[in-house]
Design a protein that fits this description.
It is built from 13 helices and four strands. With 367 residues, it is an alpha+beta fold. The protein has three domains: 70 residues, no CATH class; 232 residues, no CATH class; 31 residues. Strand 2 and strand 3 form a beta hairpin. Helix 2 packs across helix 4 and helix 4 crosses helix 5. The two termini are 49 Å apart.
């Protein structure tokens, strides 16, 4: 199919110059810096890091700048760059229970140990334009919550339910094997949960949001409650065999969501709550919530539930969640398909001629 893509080198090089011109826009307008994008477009940066499978706020901001704000193209740039990086080891599992929390809410308990922490959120903003933002150099206001000390004891809601025996337990697989690495190996079916969670974590936010919405509208067998959503910084450790101990590489920002769902029980399992889990880079609540809802939907067969809807079909979800692959497959239609189309055109003409010949022969036979 791609053999026919020849020539046109001068035109292709010219498009590079045109893209650079379009990206820069009016030279009279100050150019955006990577630091400005990183600091002031943090939610877009978080999305690019998630779908690009790489936590690097500066690179994600650069990718957004280079792609003119196209999140999928920016994620593609991140993935392409990541493949060039050497891998010298794996970090230790992060402990979200020890998160330095900036936001933590639950829709299941009003009074939580540690309290509800609204933090930065658009949940209670009016969807009206703030034209003051059009003026540059405005004063930055510090919210009271940002300076007030937080309670260090903030147990996660599913753990509270688990202490009562009301929550589905989560234990590592037998032998605690090394997790699957989606960045190195292709997905195979049936997929274990570590594969599913990795795929969802870097899946397209809009696609997962649509699937999560479908579950809530009845195309799924459960109604979720937001058990807990927390956002903040966690330490990343790395075990160095030569040293014999773990070192702290620094902190990254994560958003974690645990959805609580009903389960009527089975022959050997008492009625209990089940969970869906989402964990993503940066402040990215909508993605984490959608991921958690779809994660629970994909556990349908585990609980003996029928899997009748798209969000419950792991092959459908995992194959189509990857927006970089989906974009490539759709956008390749823009490339030359002259030979294929000419073959279709000749086949259609032949069928039409044969139909006309048969019709003419039928008319003659009728006369």
């Amino acid at each position: 199919m791609y053999v026919a893509v020849k020539g046109g080198e001068a035109a292709i090089l010219a498009t590079h110059d045109l893209v650079a011109e379009e990206r820069r826009g009016d030279p009279a307008v100050p150019e955006l810096s990577v630091a400005q994008l990183r600091e002031q477009m943090a939610l877009a940066v978080a999305r690019v890091m998630n779908e690009g499978s790489l936590f690097d706020e500066d690179l994600a901001a650069l990718a957004l700048k280079q792609s003119q704000g196209d999140a999928i193209e920016a994620a593609f740039l991140m993935r392409a760059y990541r493949t060039t990086l050497p891998r010298f080891g794996s970090s230790e599992p992060v402990d979200t229970a020890a998160m330095a929390i900036r936001r933590r809410i639950s829709a299941t308990y009003k009074d939580l140990p540690g309290g509800q922490v609204l933090g930065p959120t658009y949940d209670y903003t009016h969807r009206l334009f703030d034209f003051a933002l059009a003026a540059e150099g405005g004063e930055v206001k510090i919210a009271p919550e940002a300076v007030a000390p937080l309670d260090r004891t903030m147990p996660r809601v599913p753990d509270i339910l688990g202490a009562e025996g009301l929550m589905e337990p989560e234990t590592p697989p037998e032998g605690d094997p090394r997790p699957f690495d989606l960045t190195r190996d292709p997905v195979e079916f049936p997929a274990d949960r570590d594969v599913r969670l990795q795929t969802l974590a870097r899946g397209d936010e809009g696609f997962l949001l649509g699937l999560a919405y479908s579950v809530q509208r009845g195309f799924g067998g459960n109604h979720p409650f937001a058990g807990e959503i927390r956002m903040g910084e966690v330490s990343v450790g790395f075990d160095v065999p030569e040293l014999g101990f773990s070192i702290d590489l620094g902190e990254i920002t994560l958003t974690e969501c645990q959805m609580v769902n009903q389960f009527q029980g089975a022959k050997d399992v008492p009625p209990q709550f089940t969970r869906g889990y989402g964990l993503v880079f940066g402040h990215c609540e909508r993605k984490a919530m959608s991921m958690a809802i779809v994660d629970r939907a994909l556990k349908a067969r585990q609980f003996g539930e029928s899997a009748d809807y798209p969000a419950q079909q792991e092959e459908f979800v995992l194959y189509h969640a990857d927006n970089v692959e989906a974009a490539g497959f759709v956008e390749h239609l823009k490339l030359p398909h002259y030979v294929d189309f000419q073959g279709e055109l000749e086949l259609l003409r032949k069928i039409r001629r044969e139909q006309e010949e048969r019709a003419a022969a039928n008319r003659e036979a009728a006369e």
